[in-house]
Write a structure and sequence with these properties.
This protein is an alpha/beta fold and 206 residues long. It has 7 helices and 6 strands, in the order E-E-E-H-E-E-H-E-H-H-H-H-H. The protein folds into 2 domains: 93 residues, no CATH class; 95 residues, no CATH class. The longest helix has 25 residues.
Length: 206
Amino acid sequence: MGKTTEVFVPDGSGKGLKEVPVPRLFGVRVHPAADLFPMLTGDDFKALVEDVKKHGVYFATVYQGNVLLDGRNRLAAAEEAGLGLEDVPRVDLPESQSAIEFIATSNLKRRHLSTGERAELAVKLVPLFKAEAADRQKTGRALAPDGAKGKATAAAAKAAGVSPRTVERKLKAKGLTKARKPSVATAKPPKHVHKWVCQECGAEKK
């Protein structure tokens, strides 16, 4: 294949993204959320290539714009089998749908992950959901009514099929949560306020 493109992937800290070169399939850009899931290798990939040589690609790949969301293995097998990109069927996810939510739910249907593995996945999805939300705010693109709205943590938890609390605990354990500001009820009042109150009640003399 030999071609590469620059894509944004989690930087490992859980706090942001970094731009890195990754291999491309037929020169197609792959969504970073898709790369959180391993591709077929070894005998499994060889079997898929042989099947594609005999029958072609049955199931359509899924894109949003020019970015591949689902179907990396199909594209890789088609390329290995000597087919062209035009030989691989494709469908497009509407812009009103969250690409990350689609990628996560589609892959989780095909994979058997434990609750702990799903929680780890959700942690990796958080910065991607943040980036997606920032992009939508910048471009003015709205999500569908049933889309992944709300905080990135809640959206990642929903996509991975775990509770927001589980994800928050994982984030906290990794030191990826910000310290909460004290609430109005628990915050200490400024000294001059305390003194003024005491003066009013006569408990403190000038």
